[in-house]
Records
---
Amino acid sequence: MNKHLTAIRHLALTEIEELLELSADFKSRINQDKAVPEIKNKVLGLLFFEDSTRTRVSFEQAAHFLKLKTANFAATSSSMNKGETLKDTILTLRYERLSGLVMRHRQSGAPTLAAKFFGGPVINAGDGSHEHPTQALGDALTIIERKGSLKGLKIAIVGDVEHSRVARSNYWLLSKAGAEVRFVGPRTLVPESTTYLSAQVFHELTLGLDGVDVVMALRLQKERMKDGMLSSVHEYAKMYQINREALQFAKPDVLVMHPGPLNRGIEMDDFAADGSSSVITDQVENGVFVRMAALYWAFHEGKGESQEKPTSKKTAVKS
Ligand code: NCD
């Protein structure tokens, strides 16, 4: 049976904990120049149908650390431009004997479709406004490193929740782990329909940030917005920017996070992005280790392969 990572929503808390423990173990091995298990004789396809900097490079870097070979698929110069469907593209890659796929696509559900036809593990690297599971894992690892646990933390996710796969994956992970998630933003970008996720909703920034342990700002994802969703970027920044004044409402030891790419001066100012509360560079760094864990995990279900298994030490990851 193949093991896919398409959504945090479908993972049990024990699986999330296993992935985070693996990530922490990979991080400590790499930091200490210790050997990591290798995924040999396999080729991973990297399919990015949407722009990406950190996610694509960190999957490549993760694969390099694991000695897993990669094949890059340049969506803009592929036969999909000649009318080939996603299903036929996936079948082509299957019969070219790729062993696993990492996929980013503008359509929600595209990696799930790929998982149906591919025949090997598929990892979602962000699909439309649905999910971005490895981003949430990296964010969780970053929080746990600083706060010890996720349980009981108050976490505000601020901005364009409506279009954010990062917000959804983080919501599922953090709430499964016992954190209290708040969504904060204008009504058009945090609509009432979002409340099905059972997060608290705030349309006033100062109330949403009151006493929080973590602030996670999101990019305004204009590429997914319909007309009229945002009156003006300037007005948004005036009301919802994470800056020195806004952070005064949070706990003094608040962590400031952003998944990137960051539009400086809009969702966050330089004080918040580069100040001592910011853990944005840790998020980027941890992205590599959680992707190593995701690849190792996806390639190892029930196959009983004789590769050295990393010791799943009970790190501080358990929440
Ligand atoms: C995000 C994405 O692509 O979903 N970035 C990322 O992967 N770190 C967020 C965004 O695009 O705003």
---
Amino acid sequence: MKIPEKVLEIADGIKTMKIRGAGKIARAAAEALKIAAEKYDGPREPEAFRKYMGRVANLILSTRPTAVSLPNAVIYVMYHLDKASGDINVLREAVIRAAEKFINESLQAVKRIGEIGAKRIKDNSIVLTHCHSTAAASVIINAYKMGKIIKVYSTETRPFYQGRITTKYLLEAGVPVVQIPDSAVRYIMHEVDHVVVGADTIASNGAVINKVGTSQVALAAHEARVRVFVAAETYKFSPATLIGELVPIEFRDPTEVVPLEWINQHKNVEVLNPSFDVTPPEYIDAIITEQGVIPPQAAILVLLERFGWALEKIKQGGIGKIIFEETLEEEQ
Ligand code: RUB
């Protein structure tokens, strides 16, 4: 059975960044699995359905490599399919219910992070944020509504300019925003009280992988003794890092950095477009999750509590192969 058009559209949307930001990507992944289950009209044998869902899962997993929220969402839904037994209606229901639960809990988590994080913002604060993070924006908007924020500096976030999305988003919520180029971060840092950013992945040692430039922002904040808060749902913690796997950094097309015409005119120049970077735990004051505020060094505890069950499977073959080994073998 062919993968439904709508599912292909979601996969393409993630790849081309029409759907972007780790939380939205995770919810879109769960939604794609749900749609795939709803639209299945292939053979009635449970095994056929499982294989088809494995193919869909692998397609979704192949879209973007860095945000662990994506495999975590896929694994969550597929784990429930794995555990379910019965006819195809039972299996289909298991996928649909797990996907809906993931999406609802994810939205609740963002809301809760906003409430918890806002308490950490001092009165009359100036905040700086980088890229567009729904979780970070949730903290900022909540704190603003509590009368604690007087101004937000939003970096442009070259080359994709997600910072402009943040600026628009915060302005719509009534927050006073100043747009600055990325290169002005250190210049402006002496005015700033808190840096609030999101995360794509948090490693077991508390390192935060977020939009490229985040580590420079954190370094400038560290130098100026400005607190750095990372707002992140617990499904952004990476279980594979518990056994020493590295987080793959996505490199995107050079034409996001300079126009193709420029590349053609300068044939000997290599243009690099790393999409994310790693901020070491030493430069992070706290990670705000839906379960509470933790120091980055406590990331391992969150991981063991939330993903302890997946450890054995990860040890057997890495994150991508947790559940879909059979399908992967078939496709090779
Ligand atoms: C987005 C980005 C965001 C995190 C967190 O990168 O780095 O800071 O994903 O966002 P991209 P959220 O635009 O390349 O996807 O809090 O919305 O999950």
